[in-house]
Design brief:
Oligomer: single chain
Shape: globular
Largest sheet: 2 strands, antiparallel
CATH topology of the largest domain: Lysozyme
Helix content: 55-70%
CATH class of the largest domain: Mainly Alpha
Radius of gyration: 16 Å
Strand content: under 5%
Distance between the termini: 21 Å
């Protein structure tokens, strides 16, 4: 079993629990860690879904590096990030949710507010995304290019894959 295929059952369980599309969770793991359960970023994010320990204070480092725990918590967090965007279409909510998962919802909400002040359509990620340059939360600005690239990469792959048969750990496709 490859590191990637060992994640399939974890993704399936998280998708069933959260209602998120299997391919969306897959795409986040692919982007965040490349399916490396021991992955640790320069800023301290851990595991398959690159969880920040400060966002999950009830969990130890060891727990956050456990693949099952990491995917469960990461998928729940992703669902929460997407759930913020209730007035947008489902696809736009996913894009805003991905941006929130990567950079934090505060920056995305601030960019959306800037778009509204400019009289722009704040329900479309492509319209709001340029306003990340004006976003500020507690005197800090987001890593705009990182958020843009993150959403674009995952969305492009997800849009191409969704609806496709889901692989299983045994290598066959599930309907």
């Amino acid at each position: 079993m490859t590191p990637e295929s060992s994640c399939y059952p974890l993704i399936a369980a998280a998708a069933q629990r959260t209602g998120l599309d299997w391919w969306l969770i897959y795409g986040v793991i692919e982007q965040e860690s490349g399916f490396d359960p021991a992955s640790e970023s320069n800023c301290g994010a851990l595991g398959l879904m690159q969880l920040m320990p400060s966002s999950f204070p009830a969990f130890t480092r060891t727990a956050l590096l456990d693949p099952a725990t990491n995917v469960k918590l990461g998928a729940e967090h992703l669902r929460e990030c997407i759930g913020i965007w209730r007035l947008e279409t489902a696809d736009e909510a996913v894009k805003f949710g991905l941006a929130s998962y990567n950079g934090g919802p505060g920056y995305v909400l601030a960019a959306q507010h800037q778009a509204a002040l400019a009289g722009e359509d704040q329900s479309q990620w492509a319209v709001v995304e340029p306003f990340l340059n004006l976003a500020e939360v507690n005197g800090k600005r987001p890593d705009v290019e990182q958020i843009r690239a993150y959403v674009a990469r995952i969305w492009r792959r997800y849009a191409a894959r969704r609806g496709a048969p889901v692989p299983t750990a045994q290598g066959t496709a599930a309907a």
